[in-house]
UniProtKB/TrEMBL annotation, chain A:
Function: Involved in autophagic vesicle formation.
Gene Ontology MF terms in the entry: Atg8-family ligase activity
UniProt protein name: Autophagy protein 5
Family annotation (InterPro entries): Atg5, ATG5_HBR, Atg5_HR, ATG5_UblA, Atg5_UblA_dom_sf, ATG5_UblB
Chief location bin: membrane
Annotated organism of origin: Tigriopus californicus
One cellular component (GO) term of this entry: autophagosome
TrEMBL record, chain B:
Biological role: Ubiquitin-like protein involved in autophagic vesicle formation.
Protein's name in the database: Ubiquitin-like protein ATG12
Keywords: Autophagy, Isopeptide bond, Ubl conjugation pathway
BP GO annotations: autophagosome assembly; autophagosome maturation; autophagy of mitochondrion; glycophagy; piecemeal microautophagy of the nucleus
InterPro entries the record matches: Atg12, Ubiquitin-like_domsf
Single Gene Ontology MF annotation: Atg8-family ligase activity
Amino acid sequence: MADDREILRELWDGRIPTSFSLASNEVRKHFSKHVKVEHQENPMWFEFDGTPLQWHRPLGVLYDLAVMNSDGEARPPWSLVVHFDNYPHQEILRLDSPQAVEMNFMSSIKEADFIKHAGKIISTMQKKDHLQLWQGLQNDKFDQFWAVNRRLMERMSGEEGFKAIPVRIYRGDQMILQKLYKTIGPERKKRTLQDLLDEAFPDEDNSDARKLDEKTLEV
Amino acid sequence: MASAEEQSSTIDAKVMVRLQPAGDAPIMQQRNYKFLYVNQAFSPSPDQTVRHLYDCFGGEGKLVLNYAKTPMWG
């Protein structure tokens, strides 16, 4: 995984053209410096098509789900509404401080390492490595991020591969599906994405690639 | 295809959630703690379900969660 540099770069460079507009009932000027003084300390949140966006989910996943749920209307640019008022606490996670985003990101990294390497890589990293990961991502510094992340994405010496693959499957409004998916199957055969889908959805025909559109994978 | 909720209700299995204090958190008397961890390692996403956490990080009918008053594991 960590060796496919060109693919990693392509993924990193992926962008979603997005246009932002301020909710019509809030001050229509230019975002934070200009919103009403009493709202300036409020956390910002985004809405698409009447639904608040889950800030802790990967952006690409949110976009794919939005396209899926709106019959293809979410063609680029993706039009999001920006809000500073009436934070939808019932629908999305609280966002009490900017650190909440960083903590959420680091928790995902740790959880994934627990699945891949029983947490053995992340536990050998220092605070500065964690910071480098986060800042690399935040500042769009591919090399800075991957200098640390490659350690998390390599197999450990003596291991055939990851213990299991961290994967979440999103299906529209349904609950996220997360299980342990081993990389090696019976008779030591390397398992494929098809194997994973068959295990996750045993009652469905998963051989039709178009059906994949209905499920969004985050790996 | 049954939803995950329906699936889990049809599986006749209970997961024992074992809550262990971390740091100076007292043994549970109050119910609200600020920080929750799985296997002394990471905080699960707040919208994660116990079933998925058990599937990935539990075993032998048990799932160990740690609670704390301050951040403990990074």
